[in-house]
Design goal:
The chain is an alpha/beta fold. The chain is 38% helix and 25% strand. The protein has 21 helices and 18 strands. It is elongated, with a radius of gyration of 28 Å.
Length: 505
């Protein structure tokens, strides 16, 4: 008998009262259709007559069988009857009906919580929230407990959006479910915890980074979604303009020295650095990274996870890395004087070192390191360049329309008549494709500060940020806001987005 193809499986579930999903999975069969009194099913094992007899006796139906692949049957069961088959409202309603009120005593009973978190309605609810987040391109899922509600929010394109939230009384069960998935201690609710989950969703392997922290009304939990397929290694897709890109590629081709990427949390620094390492990765170079945490695995790169609990911090890790004879080193972040000094020492001894700092602009990175206590003459001789960046939302192409800019937005941009000449402005009106936000996706804006003789002189003189900025501007360095304006003129983003992510420069 021929095996049916995946295309022949139904697109909608065949509804049969009290037919257990668990029974279908264990017996490896799925209904294909119900016509009058005949139920057609696909089975992995056509010789398993017990299944056919059970269905005949239970439902009084005539059973017609055909051969199906085990993986196709399981995938169809998950698609039609699993967590992806119901709306979030239906799953919440089901969980709310099946899970009784949890008392304060129950919350302390970890065995009860574990059992509750392992029940089908809670599992389906958590799975559906995760699947919805991935479908909507969210980067994070936030579970936030308040006095009278449990709020669930997705961060999409850098902005939080409220979604259908479960009843407050399911809070302990939902948080416990995620903690079980990430192998965290469900009994520990007084201290922050961090964990990871690996899930296969469809044909994609997706990692999740989990963080919990105790709040006044329970544990707040955030799931960071690390979808490797979303990681962009193309500099132009990241947002690099031609002039900055050509300078940056020359910079990262240097044999040794220190290169910094700066910006606040969530400004795309990791993506830029991973794209950089991918660009310079070759069989001739040994690359070692020290990260907190390792977000994505890079082929051919030795990646090390920081673990302060066992004494494996940036300082100790960096000392050990240097003894591994690397050519290129990435230190996730320079947080203190000791890390900065070892990083500079590594750059001085023939290594190309990349790292990040949380500063507002490129010039601010120099003064931050000097303020940490780094020697000015060492910094001036090792630092090659600083790249500052921010992420702006991209106007949705599905609802993009030309518009007139508001005067109040043009004023803080401080644009000259020459810059305004011929400029056309666009906005997204909102559609289904962009969740009616007018934006879909994000792109970086950049400010690149090359460290030449004039800037080195300012470092030796320990000049402040404003002085370094002034020298850089005189040399024609493009600021974050200027690169943002360039992307406004290209119809990529809006003035309000550029103003949202940049400070006065």
């Amino acid at each position: 008998m021929t095996t049916i193809s995946y295309a022949e499986y139904p697109k909608e579930p065949v509804i049969i009262d009290n037919l257990s999903v668990k029974f279908m999975k264990q017996s490896m069969f799925v209904p294909l259709g119900l016509n009058d009194n005949t139920l057609k099913i696909a089975m992995a094992d056509l010789t398993d007559f017990y299944i056919v007899d059970t269905l005949k006796l239970s439902y009084g139906l005539t059973i017609e069988t055909c051969k199906g692949k085990a993986e196709d049957i399981l995938d169809t069961i998950d698609r039609l009857y699993g967590s992806g088959s119901q709306s979030i409202e239906m799953i919440i309603e089901e969980a709310d009906k099946d899970v009784k009120e949890i008392s304060s005593f129950d919350v302390e009973d970890t065995d009860y919580l574990r059992d509750l978190a392992s029940e089908a309605p809670i599992i389906r609810l958590v799975n559906r929230l995760i699947y919805n987040a991935i479908e909507e391109r969210a980067s994070d899922i936030h579970f936030e407990p308040f006095e009278n509600e449990l709020k669930v929010r997705y961060r999409i394109d850098g902005v939080l959006h409220d979604v259908e939230s479960p009843p407050n009384r399911l809070q302990a069960a939902i948080i416990s479910r995620v903690k079980i998935m990430s192998k965290l201690d469900i009994a520990e609710r007084r201290l922050p915890q961090d964990g990871r989950i690996k899930l296969k969703i469809g044909d994609k392997q997706i990692d999740f980074r989990i963080s919990t922290i105790p709040t006044l009304f329970g544990e707040s939990l955030v799931m960071r979604i690390l979808d490797r397929e979303r990681l962009v290694f193309d500099f132009k897709k990241l947002g690099f303009p031609e002039d900055i890109l050509s300078q940056y590629i020359t910079l990262i081709s240097q044999p040794y020295g220190m290169i910094l990427v700066t910006g606040p949390t969530g400004s795309g620094k990791t993506s830029t650095l991973y794209a950089t390492l991918s660009r310079i990765n070759s069989s001739e170079n040994k690359i070692i990274t020290l990260e907190d945490p390792v977000e994505y695995q890079l082929r051919g790169v030795n990646q090390i996870q920081v673990n302060p609990k066992i004494g494996m911090g940036f300082v100790n890790g960096l000392r050990s890395i240097v003894r591994q004879d690397p050519d290129i080193i990435l230190v996730g972040e320079i947080r203190d004087k000791e890390t900065a000094e070892i990083a500079i020492q590594s750059a001085l001894t023939g290594h190309l070192l990349f790292s990040t700092l949380h500063t507002n602009d490129a010039a601010g990175a120099i003064t931050r390191l000097l303020d940490m206590g780094v020697e000015n003459f060492l910094l001036s001789s090792t630092l090659l360049g600083v790249l500052a960046q921010r992420l702006v939302r991209v106007i949705c192409n599905g609802c993009k329309k030309e518009t007139e800019p508001e005067e109040r937005l043009l004023k803080p941009m401080k644009l000259s008549p020459e810059e305004m000449a011929g400029a056309r402005f666009y906005k997204g009106e909102g559609c289904e494709d962009c969740r009616h936000t007018g934006f879909k996706g994000r792109m970086a804006i950049f400010e690149y500060l090359p460290i030449d003789e004039d800037i080195r002189r300012e470092i030796v003189h320990r000049s402040n940020t404003e002085t370094i900025k002034k020298v850089a501007n005189q040399k024609g360095v493009t600021t974050l806001r200027q690169d943002g304006w360039r992307k406004v003129k290209e119809g990529i983003t809006t003035i309000s987005e550029v103003l949202r992510v940049t400070l006065e420069i």
